[in-house]
Amino acid sequence: MTLKIHIVEGAAPYEQVRAQIAEQARSGALPVGHRLPTVRGLAESLGLAANTVAKAYRALEADGVIETRGRNGTFVAAAGSAAARELAAAAQAYAERARRLGVAQDDAVAAVRDALRAAHRE
Hints:
Blueprint: H1 13-27, E1 35-36, H2 39-46, H3 50-62, E2 66-68, E3 74-76, H4 81-101, H5 105-121
Antiparallel strand pairs: 1-3, 2-3
Helix pairs in contact: 1-3, 2-3
């Protein structure tokens, strides 16, 4: 993994780290499952503060580009896996909320269908 940070450019260093890792993951230069350096290790090699790299990693994880596996490290995520996990979590939260509200299953599903139809019209 090769990253270059240009301090004089307008983009913040964390955004440069985020954008470069995202692009390398998208292009395949960083393959799925590739282990990324630790936050401290990457920060040292780039001459940045650890918090700067941590912020970039958090943004990349939120975007589904990377995943942290606890003490095992941080890895390039499989495309779509983050979206599938986010969708499953949203569905679970919706189901729990519908149950707490006392909404029948058929009515809850109908509400989702209506929302999806409305979203596709936009």
